[in-house]
Amino acid sequence: MALVKPLDPNHDIETKKLAEFFNETLGFCPNSVLTMQHRPAISKAFINLNKAVMANEGRVTSALKRMIAWVSSNATGCRYCQAHAIRAAERYGAEQEQLDNIWEYRTHPAFSEAERAALDFSLAASQIPNAVNVEIKERLYQHWNEGEIVEMLGVIALFGYLNRWNDSMGTSIEDGAVESAEQYLGKTGWEKGKHDGSRY
Known about the structure:
peroxiredoxin activity; mainly alpha; Carboxymuconolactone decarboxylase family protein; AhpD-like; 11 helices; CMD-like
C-alpha cells in the first residue's frame, strides 16, 4: 500500500507544466511525481534533474540510458522503477531483441561490448556495498569517454533516488507501466508487489 497518496496533477501548476516531459518518456505523469508534489520544491527540482540527466548528449542514447536505469532498478529490487525504465526504453527506440532479452544482456548478441560495459557499470554502482572497481573502470574507458561516464552515473544516481523513493512509498504503479513490464519482464517473474495500488 502507498505510504502517501499522490496529489491531483493540477495541485501545483509549475509541477504540472514541468511534468509534460513525462508524457513523452512514459505517456503519463508518474505517481511518484504526484506524490512529491506534497512539497512542490521537491517535485520541481526532481523533474529538472531528470530532464538534465536524461538529455540525449550523443552516444549514450536515450534508449541506453533507460536500460542503464532498468539494470540499476533490478539490482535494488524496485518493481515500480523496473517497469518505468523498460517502458521508457521501449518508447525511446531500444531494439526489440534487447527489450526481449534485457535479463541476458551479458551474453545475448543483441548487446554490444560497449553496452555491456555500461550495464555492468550500472549493476556494480547500484549494489551495496558499491562494486565499482578497476576492472569496471578499464572496461568503461575502452568504449566511453569521461563525459559519457558522467552521463551514465547520473542515470544510476537518479534511479538510486527513485528506487528508494518508490519502494519506500509503495507508489501505486500506472497501467501503462504495468503493460510494458508484463510484456518484457513478466516471463522472468516481474509482478507489481507492493505497488499494486489496491490500498492507499
